Amino acid sequence: MANETGGVSLGLPGVFYRRLFALIPVESLDSVLGELAAVWCEATTVEAVYLIHFDQTSQELNAGIFCHSQAGAECFTQSSIRIEQSGSLLEQARQIAEQARSFSLISSSPVHFFSIPCHQNSLTGVFLFSTHSLDDTLSLISDLTEISRRLFLLALGTGVPSHSQDCDSQHQDCQSCQSIAEPGIPASQRILPSTDKLEAMAEFAAGAGHEINNPVATIVGRVQMLLRHETDPERRQSLATIGGQAYRIRDMIGDAMLFGRPPAPCLSAVNLSKAIEDVQHSLSDAILTSGVQLMVTLSKAVCLQADETQLKIVISNLILNCLNVLEPGGKIEISAEEETMGTVSMLHLQISDDGPGLSEQEQEHLFDPFFSARQAGRGLGFGLSKCWRIIDLHHGRIEAEKIPGSGVTFHIFWPIHPTEK
Questions:
Q1: Residue 54: inside a domain
Q2: Cystine design at 326: which of 53, 210, 284, 330 (Cβ 3.0–4.6 Å)?
Q3: Order of strands across the sheet with 74-78?
Q4: What is the pLDDT of residues 311-321, one digit of tens each?
């Protein structure tokens, strides 16, 4: 929100979001405490941070301490912590924390405590040691509190409900949600998205995207307002540059929010051949410039129930993924046919290229958001993770097949009739 002087009250800067995003999937409390304490300390510019999670059942304290004056974070677990139920939340938290580390040994600065609502049977929060007022960082602290809460829930195995969890009961017998292997494809050549990891990342991206989007919108608005009255060419160029970069952030945040919380599919009868033609037309300039040959082979006219816009997003992103790795003269092939798997009628769509294939690192992170392998072009941004998200919403499945020697084929299994299990 812009204040009266024209300044912008910013939340957590993107660099810290990326650092915390890298902690997902969360393996344990120990795996996040150190970096989380460091981000709290560096983002709020306080002297020191003491991050605690106390389990009242086990009487065990897990904590992380980070001081600006030290090279790294200290993480530890302390057992047999005693708690007195009397007193304020701050007094209880301080009494618990000082049984493990005396505040006087951490910093002589005044202490500010912020609770992190996490679990009804635990006390979680952060002590900030600072000589200056924290009033100007309350928006940032609010962001950090929410992100910390999500990370703690993931670490404790009680993360927020995901789409896959909601659908487990109704799709436990759905063969389209099972691992589908083409005959003759060895398991070692198949690359599957990590559903648990992507669900956790989606929850994180949804929250982070919303918080970042608000200050970016303010920046864009201010730039547009200033440009209307600015006549100096150099100032106009500077403002245009600021606006351009803000729009880039806005587009990335849009991708993050679409990945995190995409709109529910609006199903209709979609002609696959027509959908592919529309995507080819929209990408015609990129295909022509690349010098790549695109061939489409459909066994017959296929009509399926899908959200037409979302289906086109999937096809477009997979084609762009291939274009990014191919040299002039390369080839992309698209084929599709109906298959019956048990009692389920499925569309099996294949999009393949004859490019350089995948490195071991790319195989591991192929579907991860933010993973960048610019030398090969694959997995950049949210392209493949958005594809997974959309296909998952349609109760389908995506997997990649690495071709020995060269190339990758993406297999999409899409239910033709959404009411079928």
A1: yes
A2: 330
A3: 74-78, 60-67, 48-55, 122-129, 111-115
A4: 998 999 899 88
Q: For the segment 370-420, what is each residue's pLDDT rounded down to a tens digit?
A: 665 444 434 345 678 888 888 888 888 899 888 777 789 999 998 887 544
Do 242 and 343 sit in the same domain of this protein?
no
- Are 112 and 32 members of one domain? yes
Which tokens hold the place of 191? 């690359």
Radius of gyration from C-alpha coordinates of the chain: 25
Structure tokens at 419: 């009411």
Torsion angle of the four alpha carbons 223, 261, 272, 414, in this order, in degrees rounded to the nearest 10: 160
SS3 assignment, position 89 = helix
The reply to whether 128 and 18 lie within a common domain is: yes
Whole-prediction pTM value? 0.52
From first CA to last CA, the distance across the chain in angstroms is 47
Is there a single domain that holds both residue 38 and residue 110? yes
Residue ranges, the chain, pLDDT below 50:
1-10, 159-184, 373-380, 419-421
The confidence score (pLDDT) of residue 386 equals 81
Q: Counting runs of H as helices and runs of E as strands, what totals does the chain give?
A: 13, 13
96 and 47 fall within a common domain: yes
Buried b (16+ CB within 10 A) or exposed e, 246-270: beebbebbebbbbbbbbeebeeeeb
Residue with tokens 């040691």: 129
Question: Which tokens in the block code for residue 313?
Answer: 């997003």
Query: Do 93 and 23 share a structural domain?
Result: yes
Q: What angle do CA 106, 108, 111 make, to 5 degrees?
A: 85
Burial of 116 (0-12, 13-18, 19+ CB in 10 A): buried
What is the spatial distance between Cα 391 and Cα 129, in angstroms, rounded to a whole number? 47
For 75, phi and psi rounded to 5 degrees? -120, 140
Q: Domain span at residue 120?
A: 14-155
Q: Is residue 420 part of a domain?
A: no
User: What backbone torsions phi and psi does residue 404 show, to the nearest 5 degrees?
Assistant: -55, 125
CATH number at residue 179: 3.30.565.10
Q: How far apart are CA 355 and CA 353, in angstroms?
A: 6
Do 185 and 223 belong to one domain?
A: no
